[in-house]
Specification:
This is 3-hydroxyacyl-CoA dehydrogenase. With 295 residues, this protein is of the alpha/beta class. The chain contains 13 helices and 8 strands. It binds 3-hydroxybutanoyl-coenzyme A.
């Protein structure tokens, strides 16, 4: 199997731009794709802010080395508004677009026709079954179609889940493990099950925290403090929910409830969360969630 050196990332949002950044830092040639100049510009901005942070830490006090590092990483990144053109030489295609199965399936059906035969296709979905997305491609591609699930903030979080469907070949799985290690992350593998490993455990825990609040058993602040100081979490469940996005949290659990593959008690909705989402309070990105960030 060919080494992964050329990567195309579809989606320039928080996750997509983070994946572009870590691949470019690992010296891969990366094309970042989105549908508008504004979306690509936003992705570039996220990368340059994060790169400055990484450079400052790597070359503390040496501005020249910091600049050389940033320039070298940025030189590995190309922007494109055409996914079809951008995959023409890709060893790996990673999709990080909206969590909509039809949109993802249409994208991959189109890319399957134009990408090189050896290209590995991956989705960074956190909530949709990989095999349902992969089924939109040819049988040959399904052997090269896996989940590659990064965590937010991508440049800082050290884990990648490689989600292996029954169709994925050993060679492809090995290539993805090698790529994950090359970009400085630790891979774990799991079957194509709801939430994979991290979200399967993390999301029900967070929802129970929301329901503790619904039942007025403890305050947001006290639950967060308890989990940080009593369980060693870097963020409490409400801080983390605001960080991930309340709409995302709701989308994941509503999807699981509909699928019916998870114990119903674990996917009980939370009134506090539902109310905030319906009022447009989605967490940090909208300025308010469980906490108010405008103050
Ligand atoms: N770019 C580059 N580096 C970053 C960064 C960024 N955007 N954000 C943080 N970092 C680095 C910092 O430079 C620092 O590095 P160091 O330890 O080597 O010095 C390290 O990360 C810690 O950052 P800070 O000291 O500035 O801040 P904190 O100690 O408060 O850490 C945090 C910030 C890493 C976000 C930490 O609070 C954390 O780990 N929170 C939990 C995040 C989490 O659980 N993410 C997973 C969410 S679930 C998910 O993504 C799945 C999805 O499918 C829903």
């Amino acid at each position: 199997m060919k080494d992964i050196n050329s990567v195309t990332v579809i989606g320039a949002g928080l996750m997509g731009s983070g994946i572009v950044q870590v691949a470019a830092q690992a010296n891969c040639k990366v094309t970042m794709v989105d549908t508008s100049d504004a979306a690509l510009g936003n992705g570039e901005k996220l990368i340059s802010t994060s790169l400055k942070r990484v450079a400052r830490k790597k070359f503390d006090g040496d501005e020249q080395q910091q600049k050389a590092f940033i320039d070298k990483v940025l030189a590995n990144i190309t922007l494109s508004k055409s996914a079809e053109q951008a995959v023409s030489e890709a060893d790996l295609v990673v999709e990080a677009i909206v969590e909509n199965i039809d949109v993802k399936r249409t994208l991959f059906t189109n890319l399957d026709k134009v990408a090189p035969e050896h290209s590995i296709f991956c989705s960074n979905t956190s909530s949709l079954p990989i095999s349902d997305i992969a089924a939109a491609t040819s049988a040959a591609r399904q052997e090269k179609f896996a989940g590659l699930h990064f965590f937010n903030p991508v440049p800082a979080m050290k884990l990648v889940e490689i989600v292996r469907t029954n169709a994925v070949s050993d060679d492809v799985f090995q290539s993805l493990q090698d790529f994950t290690t090359k970009v400085g992350k630790t891979p774990v593998s799991c079957k194509d099950t709801p939430g994979f490993i991290v979200n399967r455990l993390l999301v029900p825990y967070m929802f129970e925290a929301f329901r503790v609040l619904d039942r007025k058993e403890a305050s947001i602040k006290d639950i967060d403090t308890a989990m940080k100081l009593g369980a060693g979490m870097p963020m409490g469940p409400f801080e983390l929910a605001d960080f991930v996005g309340l709409d995302t949290m709701k989308f994941i659990v509503d999807g699981w409830a509909k699928e019916g593959k998870i114990e119903p008690a674990l996917v009980q909705p939370s009134k506090s969360l539902d109310d905030l989402v319906s009022e447009g309070h989605l967490g940090r990105k909208s300025g308010k969630g469980f906490y108010d960030y405008k103050k």
